[in-house]
Amino acid sequence: MPELPEVETIKRDLEKKIIGHTIREAAISVPKMVSPKDLPKRLKGFRVLGVSRRAKLLILEGKSDFLLFHLKMTGQIVLRPAQDFSIKDGEARQRRQQKQIIFGGHPIIGLKELPNKYTRAIFCFTNGDILYFNDLRKFGYIKLVSKTEGEKIFGKYGVEPLEKSFTLEHFIELIKKAKTARLKPFLLNQEKISGLGNIYVDEACFLAGVRPMRKANTLTRREQEKLWRAIKTILALSIKHRGTSFNTYIDADGLTGRFWKYRKIYGRRGELCLVCKTPIVYTKLVGRGTHYCPKCQK
DNA sequence: TTCAATGTTTAGAC
DNA sequence: GGTCTAAACATTGA
């Protein structure tokens, strides 16, 4: 699922747990998802000094390197705290369950054991905590880069929509440059604005009352402003609800993303618009499933 | 069997 | 240089 709010949620949860901790050992099972090839060797003794996010990239900051995670469509990060062996068996299991924290990503139903068949990399910390990188479709990647290389990668991404630098003026400039591009590909383009994915593009367009297939340069000033505001509103709302989970990975732990319940348009194919009761239209746009209300969105 | 899925990159056409 | 499209990556489930 990982779009900006999901990665941001992971980032906020992780930084509370792993800053200052050191990787004792790393193991990878799908080499093509990882670079450089000798990553496990090079990660020995990697101390996490900070956790951050750029676009949809999760970043563990080391002394001289960045460890980058991209979860793509089905990536998932789980931190399992060290198990407490000092308490009795049944109790330990229960406590472990309570302490087991899911840091978002794609929910894989019915696979609660760790590691599981989708586990692509494992990082063991010296304090006993274990970080799992799971990815059903193997689209994601893990990359250890120097800080210089890292900055180069970050530089390719566009403005962060929740930062102050994402001003209305800046947004209007981008729209101007986008010319005849349709809103969907324009908003999905990470080099323009970074972090929006398919769900939030549909949601933002709905909130702004504009159709995803509108040409960017046909927006009125009023629509530009509404869309700008909608992007920030939607992202902030989703972060508040810990992002989007299509399903719950672990039941009743209160830690799964709740934004799914608040979505107004995405994934509601065939249902009625919550505002005007018109059937929601589903179509394909630039190869992506796209939803809009033909009455509310112009 | 066929289609679609939360992301990104690339190739080719215009 | 830009934009658009389809395809590729790999897997599952409806």
What would a concise description of this structure say?
With 298 residues, the chain is an alpha+beta fold. The chain has helices spanning 4-18, 39-43, 89-99, 147-155, 168-178, 183-188, 198-208, 221-240, 259-262; strands at 23-28, 34-35, 50-54, 57-61, 65-70, 75-80, 101-105, 119-125, 130-135, 141-146, 281-285, 288-292. The radius of gyration is 20 Å and the shape is elongated.
Describe the structure in your own words.
- The chain is an alpha+beta fold and 298 residues long.
- The protein folds into two domains: 152 residues, N-terminal domain of MutM-like DNA repair proteins; 125 residues, Helicase, Ruva Protein, domain 3.
- Helices cover 31% and strands 21% of the residues.
- It is built from nine helices and twelve strands.
- The strands form three sheets. It has a five-stranded antiparallel beta sheet with strand order 1-8-9-6-7. A five-stranded mixed beta sheet has the order 2-10-5-4-3.
- The protein starts with a helix and ends in a 6-residue tail after the last strand.
- About 3% of the residues have low confidence.
- It binds a DNA duplex (14 and 14 nucleotides) through helix 7.
Instruction: Pick out the low-confidence regions.
Output: 246-255
The SSE order reads HEEHEEEEHEEEEHHHHHHEE
Query: What about the largest sheet?
Result: 5 strands, antiparallel
Structural class given helices, strands, pairing? Answer: alpha+beta
CATH architecture of the largest domain: Alpha-Beta Barrel
Total strands: 12
Radius of gyration: 20 Å
What's the end-to-end separation, in Å?
Answer: 28 Å
Number of domains: 2
Strand line-up across the major sheet: 1-8-9-6-7
CATH 4th-level superfamily of the largest domain: MutM-like, N-terminal
Q: Treating each run of at least 4 consecutive H or I residues as one helix, how many helices?
A: 9
Q: Mean pLDDT, nearest integer?
A: 86
Shape estimate? elongated
Query: What is the highest CATH level, the class of the largest domain?
Result: Alpha Beta
